[in-house]
């Protein structure tokens, strides 16, 4: 493991230039420079009305108090509504044009990768801008007003309650999304882990899959994480400063 500081070594640049199959896993840190609070980085959203984020964002809370869960997600959407993608999101959107096989996997639910132009993003934890019916699973886009109104009442098809289309603590990541991500990790040559504390499984297992399959793994994070020792290189810095340095 080498620490690269805030410049990218010639060796890393060469790996980047020669790679054909690349996977990038992002976490809350990639949106930090846009002003979206991370959960564990001391951001204000770690606690909501005295409740820690893993209580309010949980499957148990959904059953106990759906209205309160919606209030928290409405608050988070309100925060994100005014926010723009940053240099890290934009760099990753450019990378998709550069590699033969490029897969962007995110744990974020803010939609900022798509706002920066990334396509086919694998969203492991869903999206804040979608609701889904708790019975028939019909999805609703919360950006359109009509859906916003109907979410307050019930599913237009079956009358059941709607919930945020986000994976909550105590819930499992939708199978299809994780399997596609794991398949990309297993075939990549270069794997980036950007801005994640790597504590939430199964997402945190993707770099392990890549590494076991022989990929070179690069972490981009201002701090060390439980994954740092597994990585071949750790670039300690902010995503928005580091990622644009690669090309
Ligand atoms: P986390 O809050 O646990 O960890 C954030 C990580 O980002 C930390 O390791 C921190 O050192 C690093 N970081 C902080 N600033 C950075 C920067 N400028 N550049 C690069 N790295 C930076 O986040 P997580 O690992 O993604 O896990 C938390 C869970 O909460 C995820 O499931 C995620 O879905 C959710 N979450 C999402 C958002 C969002 O959508 N923007 C925000 C908060 C939490
Ligand atoms: Zn329904």
What does this structure look like?
This protein has helices spanning 10-18, 29-32, 53-56, 59-64, 66-81, 87-98, 112-115, 145-153, 175-187, 206-212, 239-242, and strands at 2-3, 21-26, 47-48, 51-52, 101-106, 122-123, 126-133, 139-141, 162-166, 190-194, 216-220, 233-235. With 247 residues, the chain is α/β, with parallel strands linked by helices. The chain has a domain at 10-36 and 85-125 and 172-246: TPP-binding domain (Rossmann fold). β7 (126-133) and β8 form a beta hairpin. α9 packs parallel to α10. The protein starts with a strand and ends in a 5-residue tail after the last helix. Bound molecules: nicotinamide-adenine-dinucleotide and zinc ion.
What is the CATH-assigned architecture of the domain at 10-36 and 85-125 and 172-246? 3-Layer(aba) Sandwich
DSSP helical segment count: 11
Output mean pLDDT: 90
- CATH homologous superfamily title of the domain at 10-36 and 85-125 and 172-246: TPP-binding domain
Give the N-terminus to C-terminus distance in angstroms. 22 Å
- The secondary structure category is alpha/beta
CATH class of the domain at 10-36 and 85-125 and 172-246: Alpha Beta
Q: According to CATH, what is the topology of the domain at 10-36 and 85-125 and 172-246?
A: Rossmann fold
Bound molecules: nicotinamide-adenine-dinucleotide, zinc ion
Q: What Rg do the Cα atoms give?
A: 18 Å
Q: What's the number of extended β-strand segments?
A: 12
Spans of at least 5 consecutive residues whose pLDDT stays below 50 are 1-5
Element pattern in H and E: EHEHEEHHHHEHEEEHEHEHEEH
- Indicate the percent of residues in helices: 25-40%
Biggest sheet features: 7 strands, parallel
Globally, the shape reads: elongated
What fraction strand?
A: 15-25%
Strand order in the largest sheet: 1-12-11-10-2-5-6
């Amino acid at each position: 493991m080498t620490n690269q500081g805030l410049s990218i070594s010639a060796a890393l640049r060469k790996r980047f230039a020669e790679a054909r199959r690349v996977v990038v896993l992002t976490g809350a840190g990639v949106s930090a420079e846009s002003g979206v609070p991370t959960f564990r980085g001391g951001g204000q959203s770690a606690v909501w009305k005295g409740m820690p984020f893993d209580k309010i964002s949980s499957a148990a809370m959904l059953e106990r108090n759906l209205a309160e869960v919606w209030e928290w997600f409405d608050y988070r959407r309100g925060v994100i509504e005014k926010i723009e993608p940053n240099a890290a999101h934009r760099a990753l959107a450019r990378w998709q044009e550069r590699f033969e096989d490029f897969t962007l996997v995110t744990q974020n639910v803010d939609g900022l990768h798509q706002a920066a132009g990334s396509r086919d993003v694998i969203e492991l934890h869903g999206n804040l801008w979608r609701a889904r019916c708790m019975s028939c699973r019909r999805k609703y886009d919360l950006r359109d007003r009509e859906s916003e109104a109907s979410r307050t009442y019930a599913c237009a098809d079956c009358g059941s309650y709607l919930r945020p289309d986000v994976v909550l603590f105590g819930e499992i990541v939708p199978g299809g999304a994780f399997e596609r991500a794991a398949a990309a990790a297993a075939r990549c040559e270069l794997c980036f882990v950007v801005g994640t504390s790597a504590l939430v499984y199964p997402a945190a297992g993707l770099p392990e899959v890549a590494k076991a399959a022989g990929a070179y793994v690069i972490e981009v994070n201002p701090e060390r994480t439980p994954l740092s020792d597994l990585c071949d290189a750790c670039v300690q810095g902010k995503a928005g400063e580091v990622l644009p340095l690669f090309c």
